[in-house]
Every structure is written in structure tokens, then in C-alpha cells.
């Protein structure tokens, strides 16, 4: 398990995390004691077959599901000590989510979709607009701000979703199979954006079953039966310079 440099607080720190579903003979040990440290600025890919525990791990890291045992600190916050409203604020401010299915609101244009999480964060309209326009420019969609999701390609929709994940300036960008519904060209565009975000200092954790996608990360963790069984360090991780438009 990688250790953070002295003086650098990890964004993610899991200590002996277990997750159990069911009781008696129906008990399922989805996570069987996971220790994980992700320092600020790291880029980690998590791989594993169906049932390996990677989705359960993502749900716990994303504060969507509590651990049965163990401790989880997110950017220094002990998640288990947070009340529901506090935990909702932690999710909104500290985690940016990117999903395989984009999860955009069909009746909202790109700008309104990106502004949405800031409404929950209580930011004023002018600040929401400024941040949303900046995030859309970052992902190469400054000329698509008024387009509805149905007027955008799959790759463009995912780029809107990435922009939406960035506007609250989260400590962690958490991506669940972000290229799973994309063609090869759109996949390359999305991965170039993630590469650039990480090169600029953004901490990223990505769940993927695609080796080519995982190779963009600095570390690749392999899960089997609820455990991290192997870790690879990718010293040649690619970091793109341009964003396709």
C-alpha cells in the first residue's frame, strides 16, 4: 500500500474496511479487509472481475454505502462520524462523480446540468455561472453550453458530466467505468481530459475493466474476492496536453 509523502494528508485512507451483506448462510463478504491510501494528486485505477468487490469499494469510497467494519477517512474526515446531512455535504464538496451512463438531466442544457451541484452547495447564481462556464471550457465544450444532452454525442455528454464533477472543486474525482458507453474516439478524448486534470494536480480514482483505460493511471490495483491482491506502478502513465473539440 503506497504511503503519502511526509506532510501530505491522503485524500483516501481505508483501514481494514470490510463490507458484509446478509446473515447466516446467506452472508456475502463483499470486502474482506481493505487497506488503501491515495495521496493528493494520485491517479488510481481499480480493476477486477464481476463480484471482485470493486463496485462495493467505489460505493464506500464515494460515501454512498457505509463500511461494516474498519475506518475510512476522506480528506481527513472520519466518514463514520458524520450524520446524514453532514455526509451529504461531504459528498457534495469533496467528491466529484462521473458515471458510465452520464446521468445528465435531459431537460437541462449543458450549462444547467453543470450548475446543478452548486445549487445544493448554496453558491450564488453568478458564481455558479462563472464556474460552470469555466469547467465546460476545460473539457472543450465552451461552444456547446446551450445544447441539451440529446443534441450532444456520447463523448460530449460524458465531458459535460466531467465538468459537472469539477465545479465544486472536490478533493477527489471518482469515475465509474467512464468510457464504458463510448466509441474509441470519444474514449480517447475523455481519457485525455482525465490525464490533463491529474497532471494539474487532481486526485482521480477510476473503476474500469479495460486494461487500456487503466494504463492511464499511475497505480493499478487488482481486486479478487473483496481484497486488493496486487498493485502495479505505471511510471509511463500518459498525460495528454490537448483536449479535442
Automatic annotation (TrEMBL):
Amino-acid biosynthesis listed as a keyword: no
Protein's name in the database: Putative ABC transport system ATP-binding protein
Record-linked PROSITE patterns: ABC_TRANSPORTER_1 (PS00211), ABC_TRANSPORTER_2 (PS50893)
An MF annotation (GO) of this entry: transmembrane transporter activity
Superkingdom of origin organism: Bacteria
UniProt keyword annotation of ATP-binding present: yes
UniProt KW keywords: ATP-binding, Nucleotide-binding, Transport
Pfam families: ABC_tran
